[in-house]
Amino acid sequence: MKNHLKRIASPRTWILDKKYSKYTVKPNPGAHALDSGLPLGVILRDILKIADSMTEVKKILNSKEVLVDGRRRKDHRFQVGLFDVLSIPDLKQNYRIVLDVKGRLSVLEIESKESSIKICKINGKTVLSKGKIQFNLSDGKNIISDMQAKLGDSLVVSLPEFKVKEVLPLKAGAVVCIVKGKQSGSLGTIKELKKKEVVFSSKNKAVETETTKNCLFVLGFNEPKIKVEL
User: Fold this and answer.
1) pLDDT band at 194 (very low <50, low <70, confident <90, very high)
2) Whole-model pTM above 0.85?
3) Residue pair 132/144 in contact by the 8 Å Cβ criterion
């Protein structure tokens, strides 16, 4: 497997100058698809511009704390996924990976108090011994909880403990973000639920459209639980 990635071949969700140089950082395989996250090195060098080169990025990661979801990461190829929280304690700065209105991954600065929570979508459920339920989440993690939740619902979890604080159900009136397809990045409200489709009212375009449930990510009710707009 190649350890490099040409800029021209990078996903359309990455906001990179494709002609700046030939290569960019290729993330390690992990919980997120290639187009659903950004390598830590790209964020620090190309987006936040904390470092001028990847050599400087590596020195920063080895000498200073850089946290992703409350855990220190030293690998510049580590992939930071959608709605993950990136914290740099020395600079007292916190960021969240979000989608802009064009469906591209962006780094949004957030307040310190908001960096202690994260929202994850339930992509699967597994029944364990003694009837315990394990939720398989969108960020690749699994969590065991007694809370009642269904596929498509979202969980508000605390960081870094990763304990469930609240369930955000997929139902009419929920505020959602479209994370797949042509409308990726659109925020809006669910108007009606069908079997597999959802009638969605876009906040940005003020129109109603239909989409499938697997394209939606529930962020709250009436208003998002986290800051997601640039």
Assistant:
1) confident
2) yes
3) yes
Confidence grade of residue 20 (pLDDT, cut at 50, 70, 90): confident
Q: What is the β-pairing status of strands 216-221 and 208-212?
A: unpaired
DSSP-derived letter for residue 94 is: E
| pLDDT tens digits, one per residue of 119-159 | 999 999 999 888 889 999 999 999 998 889 999 999 999 99
Taking residue 82's Cβ as centre, other Cβ atoms within 10 Å add up to: 22
User: What domains can be seen in the chain, in order of their start residue?
Assistant: 4-110 (3.10.290.10), 116-168 (2.40.50.740), 174-224 (2.30.30.30)
Judged by phi (left if over 0) then psi (alpha if -120 to 50, else beta), residue 50 lies in alpha
Residue type, 145: S
Residues whose CB falls within 8 Å of the CB of residue 187, separated by 6 or more in sequence, listed in order? 175, 176, 177, 202, 203, 204, 219, 224, 228, 229
What is the Cα–Cα distance from 144 to 118, expressed in whole angstroms?
16
Paired tokens of 5:
């990635």
Nearest to 184 by CA among 11, 9, 6, 2: 11
pLDDT at 129: 85
Q: Average pLDDT over the chain, rounded to whole? A: 92
* CA atoms in the 13 A half-sphere facing the CB of 162: 15
- Beta-sheet strand order (sheet of 174-178): 208-212, 197-202, 187-193, 174-178, 216-221, 223-224
